Every structure is written in C-alpha cells, then in structure tokens.
Amino acid sequence: MEEEKGSIEGHNERSDKEEVFTKVVRAGKRTYFFDVKSTRHEDLYLTITESKKRLGKEGKMFYEKHKIFLYKEDFEKFTEGLREAVTFAGNGEVVMTAEKVFEEPEEVAVAVTASEFSDVDFDELGTR
Questions:
Q1: CA angle 17-23-24, nearest 5°?
Q2: pLDDT of the chain, 128 residues: tens digit per residue
Q3: 12 bridge partner residues
Q4: How far is CA 89 from the centre of its chain?
C-alpha cells in the first residue's frame, strides 16, 4: 500500500516549510519514506528512510531507522546508479546507455565469482 502527503504546490500554503512532499511505501516488514524537504534557502533535497519494527530488550517494540540524504546536485547520478543496480539485480545484466558508453567511468562495479579468486597464503608474504 502506498500513501502520499503534500505536494510542491502545497508547499507555499504550509507554515512548516521544511517538509514539502512524502511518499510512504510499505514493503513487507519494512517501510520506506521518500521525503522531499526544503532548506532555509528553499533548496530542495531528498531523504530516504528505511524503517523496520524490532523487538527490543524486555519485549518492547521499537523502530530501527536508516536514513540517506540526497542533494539536488546528486539526483541524476544517484538515479542512474540505482537504475543500473536494480536492473542488474533483476536480470544479471548491466545495461549501458549511449551516454555511459562515451563518458569516462568514475567508478566501475565488477561482478566476480568465488572461483575467480586465487588462494593466497599470507604466511608467504613474510614480515618486516
């Protein structure tokens, strides 16, 4: 089930200008919150929060949360990286866009299997 709260247009009508838009995605035992917020200078940024219900000591329930802050200047690269990772996780293939073929890679992710590694005996390295 998904829920939405707020909108960009509603931003000016609210007295609390920090939170502009929220998208809640419930996925099994986890809930994801995609929150668009505004700085004092009205620059927008995104927070992504993963929330999981946990059983703590003495049997009390609590929510464990992990948060990522994503700023406007990083949206495009983050989205591109996420799209590639999700595509790879879904079908095991890296999809290269025409744009990616002609640019110098900043980072290269390589999938390897355990059989591609060599056994290393650290005793052979010696000590200094």
A1: 125
A2: 444 444 433 334 443 458 899 999 999 999 999 999 999 888 999 999 999 999 988 899 999 999 999 999 999 999 999 999 999 999 887 766 655 555 555 555 555 444 444 454 445 445 44
A3: none
A4: 14
pTM score over 0.70: no
Where in the chain are the domains? 2-118
SS3 43: coil
Alpha helices in 1-128 (DSSP H): 75-91, 98-102
> 3-class SS at 4?
strand
Q: Which CATH architecture has domain 2-118?
A: Roll (3.10)
Strand, helix or coil for residue 20: strand
d(CA 34, CA 32): 7
Both structure tokens of 107:
């980072």
